[in-house]
Amino acid sequence: MATRKIFKYVIFDILRSKLVIGYTILLFVISFGIIYTGKDVSKAVVSLLNIVILIIPLISIIFGTIHFYNSREFMEMMLAMPVKRRDIFWAEYLGLSSALSLGFIIGVGVPLLLYGASSTSLYLIAAGVLLSFIFTALSFLSSVINKDKAKGIGASLIIWFFLSIIFDALVLAVYFLFNDYPLEKVTIVLAALNPIDLARIMILLKLDISALMGYTGATLQNFFGSAFGTIFSIGFLFVWVIVPTLLSLRIFNRKNF
Amino acid sequence: MTQIITYPVRQSSAGNNTPRHKGHPSPKENYGAEVEQLIAIRDLKKSFGKNLVLKGINLALNKGLIVAIMGPNGSGKTTLLKSILGLVKPDSGEICVKDFQVNGDCEYRRHIGYMPQNSCFPENLKVKEVISMLKDVRGNHTEYDEELVHKLNIEEIYNKQIGTLSGGTKQRVSSAVAFLFNQEIIILDEPTAGLDPVSAEAVKQKIIDEKNKGKLIIITSHVVSEVEELADRVIFLLEGKVHVDNTVHELISKTGELSLNKAIAKIMIDYGN
Questions:
Q1: What is the average pLDDT score of chain B?
Q2: Can you point out the beta strands (E) in chain B?
Q3: Residues B16-66: tens digit of each pLDDT
Q4: Do B109 and A72 touch (CB under 8 A)?
Q5: Contact B106 A76 (CB under 8 A)
């Protein structure tokens, strides 16, 4: 109950922020440009995918961290009221991740659906929404751990940089070093460790373009076939939403403000 | 989720000098024998990392008083207030607010109004939305004390966004909000810092009026003249301990000085030796 009451005002506040409005407009312009300059839906989805898995995590994690530190005094004030800590946490988390998801759905989803709804574009929208939730959760995690704002933002940037760039390099290194061994199982474990990879796999399995899938995706398709791969990646994306969220809630409950 | 759910401990609030817990030093209660005790703190300790901020605080605060908590920066004033509010989780010791023990349950905060040092409401909300949000969240309240809302001219800025307001104006909003729900205990962290003289006077008058209605008002302040004007009792913290706990009057006469300002200066110099 209290969560819903606070949520309403949190989302009001975030939806009016210039950053979220700018984010929505930016995504809208990019998607419109890509969709209407190309002819083919699946090509448009692939190009959009590359933007989605780069921009969404970055904006979600940075905006999430900044928002958390900016709301710290507000949370303090709310915590001095007869409200449970977890209610405030859920209101803040759900408010922020829904606002970012809404921005994404308007910015990317609407142009895609206007062009013609295919199951692939629905998958792209789902992946974007899940990534928004995941990276908001990670931003909250780094904010509840670090008391200092600069450190928190730094940690968030490192998480993003690691998951979107360094991780792939490490995977390649593993394959290169151990290419004499059967690596299928390792590949699956590695894929599950990175939400960005999972999102990419989920959509590319749907598009059936194995050449574009990267090593993890290709192995996954060979090993499991599309259907299982899709379930696998969606399942693990949900794990990626739940685990960091509950972990930050746990720390939030014990935190000194 | 490991939320420790605990229930308020009902204790007899007989309201006289019987110590409620054995084994702890009985807190000072010589500020009127028949008054109700609202806050009791026993042996409160808190450290942040290696930094020991509160080193065993014992306090009993009764209704109908204005209590000023003073002390140099870093002496633990804000930590003490935040412990009472449950924002900071103490390492050991206990805090009772009315009949509730402070240990994770949030219900007792219904009796406390709080004004933080730096007020910060969500930037993109309008003033009236902030007020209706607080009313919403507090819930089942029918009577609001809107005296300060009128006196501080909050209505004039009802439709402005918080982000466009100046620091002092935000402070005005948050002091009006602290009294809005008519709680028995009101905690104000530097209530007049940043306020213009007219607003500061209005807030001070409100503090005195509420005390006369029988509330407990706790303020922290660095402005000695303000403390001298308002407070019935001064609690001076030094390095995480209650160094002095006395009425303004006695504090001045005991130190043999003429004003509170000099008395406090003397305390600090004596401590330094």
A1: 80
A2: 37-48, 51-62, 65-70, 92-97, 100-101, 112-115, 185-189, 216-220, 233-238, 241-247
A3: 444 444 444 444 444 444 557 888 888 888 888 888 888 888 888 888 889
A4: no
A5: no
The tens digit of pLDDT for each residue in B212-252 reads 988 899 998 888 888 888 888 888 888 888 888 888 888 88
Q: In chain B, which residues touch A (CB < 8 A)?
A: 1-3, 48, 82, 85-89, 106-110, 112, 114, 116, 118-125, 129, 133-134, 136-139, 174, 187
Pairing, β B233-238 against β B216-220: unpaired
CA terminus-to-terminus distance, chain A: 23
The DSSP 8-state label assigned to residue B10 in this structure reads P
Cβ–Cβ of B122/A80 closer than 8 Å?
no
Angle ∠(B218,B223,B224) on CA atoms, nearest 5: 90
Residues of A in contact with B3 (CB under 8 A): 84-86, 253
All residues of chain B having their beta carbon less than 8 Å from the beta carbon of residue A96 are none
How many residues would you count in chain B? 273
Q: What is the per-residue pLDDT for A210?
A: 55
The DSSP code sequence of B24-71 is: SPPPP--S-TTPPEEEEEEEEEEEETTEEEEEEEEEEEESSEEEEEE-
Sites in chain A below the pLDDT cut of 70: 208-226
A237, two tokens = 């994306």
Distance CA A52, CA A41 (A): 16
Q: Assess contact for A146 and A152: CB atoms under 8 A.
A: yes
Cβ neighbours of A253 in B, within 8 Å: 1-3
Of B114, B129, B136, the CB nearest to A80: B114
One DSSP character per residue, A16-65 reads: TSHHHHHHHHHHHHHHHHHHHH-S-HHHHHHHHHHHHHHHHHHHHHHHHH
Give the tokens for residue B36. Answer: 């109700």
Sign of CA pseudo-dihedral A170, A176, A178, A182: positive
* pLDDT at residue number A211: 53
User: Which range among B9-13, B233-237, B255-259 shows the weakest confidence by mean pLDDT?
Assistant: B9-13
**What phi and psi, each to the nearest 5 degrees, are found at residue B48?**
-110, 105
Q: So what's the pLDDT on residue B31?
A: 44
Where would I find the H helices in B116-196?
A: 127-138, 147-151, 167-179
Separation between Cα atoms, residue B116 and residue A191, nearest integer Å: 46
| Tokens describing residue A6 | 């606070």
